[in-house]
TrEMBL record:
Family annotation (PROSITE patterns): PROTEIN_KINASE_DOM (PS50011), PROTEIN_KINASE_TYR (PS00109)
Cited InterPro entries: Adaptor_Cbl_N_dom_sf, Kinase-like_dom_sf, MLKL-like_MCAfunc, Prot_kinase_dom, Ser-Thr/Tyr_kinase_cat_dom, Ser_Thr_protein_kinase, Tyr_kinase_AS
GO molecular function: ATP binding; protein kinase activity
GO cellular component, one term: cytoplasm
UniProt entry tagged with the keyword Transferase: yes
UniProt KW Magnesium keyword: no
BP terms from Gene Ontology: cell surface receptor signaling pathway
Protein name, entry field: Kinase-like protein
UniProt domain Protein kinase: residue ranges: 210-537
Annotated CDD domains: MLKL_NTD (cd21037)
Pfam families assigned: PK_Tyr_Ser-Thr
Source taxonomy: Eukaryota, Fungi, Dikarya, Basidiomycota, Agaricomycotina
UniProt keywords, alphabetically: Kinase, Transferase
Amino acid sequence: MRKDLTKFGTMRTSLRGVKDSSKSIAKKMRENWSAITIWNGAKPILSAAAESVPGMSVVVELVDGIVGACEKAKSNKESLAQLSERCQVIRDTLKGYANRANERPPQLDEAVFKVKEVFLKIKVRLDDRNDYTQFESVLFHAQIRKEIEKCHEEISACIQDYGFLLILQIREWQETFQQNVERDKIWIADQFSDVKQGQKMIVEIHQANFRDLTIAMQKGFARVHDNNKKRAGIERNLFLTLKMSGQLLPNHNLDHGEVTISVGEEVKFGRTRPDTTWHKGTYLGSQAVLVKTIRKPMLDDHKVIERFEREAKVWVDVWNDDNGRYTVPTYGFWETPHGDTGELHLVYPYYRKGTADSYLRAHPEHDHIAILLDVAKGLAVLHGMKIMHGDVRGNNIVIGKNNNGLLSDFGLSKALDDVDDSPHMSTPDHDSQPWWAPEVFQDRVQGLRSDIWSFGMTVYELLTYKVPFHGHKLVSSRVWERYLIDQEGRPTRPLENDIVERGLDDELWNFLLQECWKTDPKERSDINRVVEFFEYLVRRRKGGGGRADDTSISEFEDN
């Protein structure tokens, strides 16, 4: 008995030692195991349960990849964070159902397969976008945003077929997505407003991407209308981008403050109609511009904007072809109400020497024929693109930095006619009548050869310093038409020596009569013949030279 008790005591001591050892081991385990260690230990068990659903492990890996790709994104971070979170919720929901061995939804296998396909597409898209540089991510942020939205739409389309997943649609993603998009847009605007960051992007850009960059910058400029510091930064970078690329702004409706009119700086610019005023302004905070304001009854805002956006396409085509060599670029427009009428503002580079009709009168020493050759070449640019000017006259020719002539306001008279809401909208402007061809009076029809007639009248105007048919009172179209018929449509030839010395000699006068002022438009020369003749006149006067051919003007230079 005593031996048994002794044996029992020994066993109890041994058990007590084991118990103490177990406590020590447990304590050490508690001290050394982290949450990650515990998860890593549990993960194989959960994964094993999930793996009993075909494709579940692939879904888990894809979501891990999506999360990583979203975290590495260089733009659209708020929107991508939302996409990442949504994918994780779907993954966790599917895993939760997969771990219910006896309570799995009957469509679980099919749902996992469909989700796997959608997540694979999302992962591929994100990987492609993560190859972008910082600059490319900013430049193409709008395209990336559309792809993120498409990812959400594909997710919604996928899970709506499975009732057990519809709970995930209770909280609509669209509203949150739009909020995140706005946050991302603000971030993009910040990138463009940072002068150093913006200039770094400009240096990195390839020529083909300049337009995408200017589109993004102009949109960013519109978004920060209440932050002067950010606007100033974007203005500076946007102007630099345009200067480097040689492009115009992509959106020509400048109603977000791209142009600032200088208060009190109304300027006289040639002969000004009663409904027109001119002001100096600043374009993108960097360049002096001239703002032409036309006040007249107009159609509703929508039609004005629609008509001039169509006209802006012509401005861009002409700029891309001519680059401001012989024509004046139109930077853009905006429209504002003014009482019962509307005000249309048109923006041009500022040319301090003004218009040809005024400048040549004040500077008779300059070569008038060379300037007229420039004008003819400007018309050749337009006619080569099947564009009619419609109002060729000295007041629509400006003098550039190198005393060259530049043709402006092409197509404006027709565009204004289209938006004029007055009862006489089809009646042409009396102020331009001395330059009109007979068919404009008789049939209200204009064409390219009508410009040739008007060019001939402009030659007369700039060499005589007088309006064609000067001295005749402009009463009405009917009276003026009768007068022109009596005069056979041609002004009387001036014979003063100073006019002949400026270039209106026998040879030029005969050219005007025989090739510009034919009553039948078909009998008039085309613009190429006019250019050829004036090149000959310049060579004759210069002894073989010809300034106009070698003149290259950049619209960004200070004229």
